[in-house]
Amino acid sequence: MKKLGCLAFAAMLGLMVVGCASSPEKYAAKARAAALEALKPVMTDPEKKPDWVNSVPITNKQFAFVGVSNKFAIESEARSNAQSDGRNQLVKYYGTLISDRGRTATASYGITSDVFDPQIASQELEEFMAEGLAKGLPAKEFYTETYVTTSSKYAYKVYVLMIIDKAEADKALKEYCNQKAAEYQKQADAEKDAEKRKQLEKVSEFFGGSLPSSMF
C-alpha cells in the first residue's frame, strides 16, 4: 500500500514536470505566431499587390527600378524614402557599370591607377547622375502597406515603380563620357612624359569610344 502511494506520488510529480515543461513551449509558440502576425499589413493600397513589386519589368526601351521604403509613421515620408531608394539604384547601376568596364580597360591597356582609377570614376559618375538624371526619375506607380505597431499606431511601407527611357539615360551618360574624354585628352596634350601621355590618351579613347559603345 505504501509502495502504491509512492508510485502515485511519483506519477503526479511527472505530470507536473511535463505540464511545466510544456508551458514555456506553448508561450513561445504563441509569441512566434504573434510576431508573424505583426509582419502582415492590416491594409494595402491597392488591395492586390502589383506584379512589379516582386518582378521588375524589363524592356528594350526603358529602365525600371523598384524603390522600397523603411516603415514610417507618415505615409508621405515613406513615399519620399521609396523614391530616394529608386533613384539611388539608378545611380549605383551606372556606377557599377563604369567601374567594371574601367577595370577591364586598365588591364587591357596597362593603365596605372595614378592615371586612371575605375573606383574614382565610378564615384564621379554616380555624383553626375545623382545631380542630373536621377533627380528627374519619375514615379509611375505606388504600392503601400499599412502596419499596426506595438503602440497601436500606423506605420507605412511604400514600394514605387520608377521608369526612365533608355534614350534619355544614354544621353546623360554620353554627356559625361564626352566631358571626361576631353578632360583626359587635354591632360595628354600637356603631358611631357611619353608613357604617361600614352596612358592618358588611352583613357580618353576609353571614354570617347570604347566605353559608350559597350554600354549603349
Describe this structure in words.
- The protein has a 4-stranded antiparallel β-sheet.
- The protein has one domain.
- The N and C termini lie far apart (95 Å).
- With 216 residues, the protein is of the alpha+beta class.
- It contains 5 helices and 4 strands; from the N terminus they run H-E-E-H-H-E-E-H-H.
- This is Lipoprotein.
- It comes from Treponema succinifaciens (strain ATCC 33096 / DSM 2489 / 6091).
- Keywords: Signal.
Question: What layout of secondary structure does this protein have?
Answer:
Blueprint: H1 2-38, E1 43-45, E2 62-68, H2 75-109, H3 118-131, E3 139-148, E4 154-165, H4 166-190, H5 194-215
Antiparallel strand pairs: 1-3, 2-4, 3-4
Helix pairs in contact: 2-3, 2-5, 4-5
Provide keyphrases for this structure:
disordered N terminus; alpha+beta; 4-stranded antiparallel sheet; 216 residues; 62% helix
Q: What's the gist of this structure?
A:
With 216 residues, the chain is α+β, with helices and mostly antiparallel strands.
Number of domains: 1
Strand content: 5-15%
Helical residue percent band:
55-70%
> If you average the pLDDT, what whole number results?
84
Low-confidence stretches: 1-13, 15-21
**Global structural class:** alpha+beta
